[in-house]
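FORM 7B: Structural annotation worksheet

SECTION A. Query
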Amino acid sequence: MTVVAEPRVVVLVEGPTDQAALRTLARRHKRDLDAEGISIMAIGGAMNIRTALALLGAPRPDVRFAGLCDDREAPYFQRALEDAGFGTEISREDMERLGFYVCVRDLEDELIRALGAPAVEVVLAQHGELDSFRTMRKQPAWRERPPEEQLRRFLCSQSRRGPAATWLVEALDLDRVPRPLDRLLVYL
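SECTION B. Predicted structure
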């Protein structure tokens, strides 16, 4: 990955999963974010948004900021944007106007809903992960849960997060991209 020396846009995302998904979606749309001066920064969790904005000197007249976060993490992003000077009493609508988009639950949930559980299982099979998934869902704690919850748990395991996001975005019909991911790429 190329580091953008003088970015015109900095996209702040919680972690490498979001970063991989956004880069994959951009590539599928034939966009080179690095060449466009767009830097995607994984901040190591939503709690680090305030620190990231401060380190980057946000807001700045020469750089636009954008981001993606999970629903439960949106309040951290809202308060950090307020504290950084992007506005007061920032609502979800204000966040979108500023280029910050919220996944309904999280990115994995958005991707599972966009593809559907059967299609996600096909993707797992294509990448040699279906047997591991089937083993996990046989565990007593997961046996009776809906397939979407089982898949989300499986995909959210640390070892699968980045690669799985890439696989799922690769499998998406571009007309069914989850709204937060789609809107963020359009904003950029």
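SECTION C. Observations
Residues 108-173 form one domain. The CA atoms of residues 13 and 72 lie 14 Å apart.

SECTION D. Sign-off
Analyst initials: ____
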